[in-house]
Known about the structure:
Number of helices: 9
Structural class: alpha/beta
Strand content: 25-35%
Number of strands: 12
CATH class of the largest domain: Alpha Beta
Radius of gyration: 18 Å
Helix content: 25-40%
Mean pLDDT: 93
Largest sheet: 7 strands, mixed
Shape: globular
Amino acid sequence: xxxxxxxxxxIKMKFFTEDLYSEYNQKLKIKSxxxxxxxxxxxxxxxxxxxxxxxxxxxxxxxxxxxxxxxYSEMLSHVPIVAHNSIKKVLIIGGGDGAIAHEVLKHxxxxxxxxxxxxxxxxxxxxxxxxxxxFSSLENSKVKIVIQDASKLISNNxxxxxxxxxxxxxxxxxxxxxxxxxxxxxxxxxxxxSDKGVAVFQTGIPFFQRNELRNTVxxxxxxxxxxxxxxxxxxxxxxxxxxxxxxSNKINISQINKKSNTTKLKTLYYSTKxxxxxxxxxxxxxNTIK
Length: 290
C-alpha cells in the first residue's frame, strides 16, 4: 500500500508513524534505519523494528514486514494455485519485495513467472536487504523481472489468454497506483488470463476502505463470470480484516481442487482449513458490497 510523500517527522524520535488514514494511525519503534532512498516514483524506507523485524515502506506506508507478511503473500498465492491445481504461467503485478514469488515457487507445476514492478529500486533494495522475505526468489531462473507500468504491460496483445494466474499486489489507489483500479485495468486482466485462468487482487482493509472494495467488485461483475471476496489478517495492515478479491470465467477458487496435494506445502498461515474458512464473510461486509 502506498500514500503521498514520506515526511521527515515520520521517523523522528526513532519512531515510524503511518498516516494512511486521516483520523487513525499506527506507530512502530525503529531499532535502526537500513535503507532510505528517493526513487523516480516514491520514497523508499527499510528499517528494523522490534515487533515486526525488517519493514519496507513506500511513501510512508507499510508494504511488508518480515514477521507477518505470510498472511498476505501466502493467501494471494496458495489459494488460487491450490484451487486450480494446474497453474503454470503466472504474472505478478507489483511484488517487488519477492515474497509472493517465493510462495508461488513452492509449487512444482510453475514453469514461468513474470514479475512486473514499476520501480527497479524496490527490486534492488529487496534483493539486498529483504532476503528473509524473498529467499532469493527474485534471482530464480523461473522469474523474469519486467520494470514497467503494469497497466501498459497488460494492454499488450502479445499476452492475450496467456497467464493461468495473475496476482495483483497493487498499492492503494493513490498516485501511479490509481491506474490499477480503473475499469480498463480489469478488462485487460480478463484479456490476458487463459480460458481457465484466475486473477486475485489486493483490495484493502474494508473497515476503512469500503469504496475501494465496492468499486472492485462492481468492475469484476462487468468482465468475469465468477468473482468474490476472501479474507486474511495481517497485523501490520492496521484496521482488521484485509480483503482479497478474485475473478475467473471457469474456476471457483473457494473450492479446493480434489487432486491438489498440500501435505508438503510449508506455510505459516495458509492451510486447507484456512482456505475453506477465508470465504466466510461477516454480515457487515456482505452488506457493504450489496
